Amino acid sequence: MSDAPETYTASAEVGAVRVRRTRTQRAWIVLRKAPISAWFGLLVVTFYLTVAVFAPLIAPYGEADSSFAAYAPWSDEHWFGTDQIGRDILTRLIYGARNTIGIALATTFLAFAIGGSLGLIAAINRSWLDQLISRAVDVLMAIPSLIFALMLLSIFGSTVWSLIVIIAVLDSTRVFRLTRAVAANVVVMDYVEAARLRGEGLAWVMRREILPNILPPMVAEFGLRFSFVFLTIAALSFLGVGIQPPTADWGSMVRENASLIQFAQFDLRAAFTPLLPAAAIALLTVAVNFIVDWFLQQTSGLRDDL
Amino acid sequence: MHPVFKTVLKRLGLGVATLFVVSAIIFSSISMLPGDFGEAVLGQAATEETVAAFRDELGLDEPAVVRYFQWVGAVATGDLGTSFSGRSSSGVDRSRPVVDLVGPRLWNTLFLAGVTAMIAVPLALLLGLTAALYRGSVYDRAVNVTTLTTIATPEFFVAYILILVFAAINPWFPSLANVQADTPLGERLYRVALPAMTLTLVIVAHMMRMTRAAIINLLASPYIEMARLKGATPREIILRHALPNAWAPIATVIAFNLAYLVVGVVVVEVVFVYPGIGQLMVDAVTTRDIPVVQACALIFAGTYILLNLIADIIGIITNPRLLHPR
Question: What is this model's ipTM?
Answer without folding.
Answer: 0.78
